[in-house]
Amino acid sequence: MNNKSVKEIKEIVDNLKVDQYLEYIDILKSDERKSVQKLAVSLAKKLDAIRKEDERLELINTYENDGYEKGYLYIGGIDEVGRGPLAGPVVAAVVVLPPHTKIEGIDDSKKIKESKREELYEIIKENALDYGIGIVDNEEIDDYNILNATYMAMKKALNSMKKQPDYLLVDAVTIPGVDIKQNPIIKGDSKSISIGAASILAKVTRDRMMCQYDEIYPEYGFKSNKGYGTKEHYEAIEKNGITPIHRKSFLKNVL
């Protein structure tokens, strides 16, 4: 490496495979140039982050692996988004991933930046054995209440799949009227890779819908607030009234 410039070394480092990191960390450390030694430190930090993420992904496969050990073959994770907003639908998704899947970055969708969620949305769909999405609109939420509407969205997601799971990992709840073995997991979207994947599909689907509604009703800021009860959203309701996508049962105190 001594016969190469720092720029050339950086280009080599940027194109290394993970299994080459350790070897090159030692090589870079032996270089007397401080800028090259900094590259060694940076590469070591990158390797540490990769290892930690790999450990996390192994951990969030625990519930799935336990299901396989019990004899289940087609394990789905299911989650919903949109229970709290004043407007728009509640959306649920169910995802069946191949056993021992590791997709970097999968987590509770609320913890992930929007650009990363969009990227993961496509990766999850490409890698999933199957997935389904269920949408229940604001009128049905008003008619049946949000909890029942959430269950309806989950059932719609299940019914849209090509093949039903034989075991369901569910974020926090047990879905009534579903003849599939269920395991409700508190904060499941950060503890199960399948539930985390479902939360991402559901959130991206709903967020895209709210962005479309923003074009129809630009006064309400749906692109930024996604229908949640921000100060600006309440002010827009007070000034302009409600839209056809608002949940009247959530706005009894302001109507």
Automatic annotation (TrEMBL):
Source organism per UniProt: Terrisporobacter othiniensis
NCBIfam families: PRK00015.1-1, PRK00015.1-3
Domain (RNase H type-2) ranges: 73-255
Major localization class: cytoplasm
Protein name: Ribonuclease HII
Lineage per the UniProt record: Bacteria, Bacillati, Bacillota, Clostridia, Peptostreptococcales
Entry-linked Gene3D superfamilies: Ribonuclease H-like superfamily/Ribonuclease H
GO terms (BP aspect): DNA replication, removal of RNA primer; mismatch repair
Residues that hold a divalent metal cation according to the record: 79-80, 171
Highest taxon listed in the record's lineage: Bacteria
Keywords: Cytoplasm, Endonuclease, Hydrolase, Manganese, Metal-binding, Nuclease
Similarity-based family: Belongs to the RNase HII family.
Keyword Isomerase: no
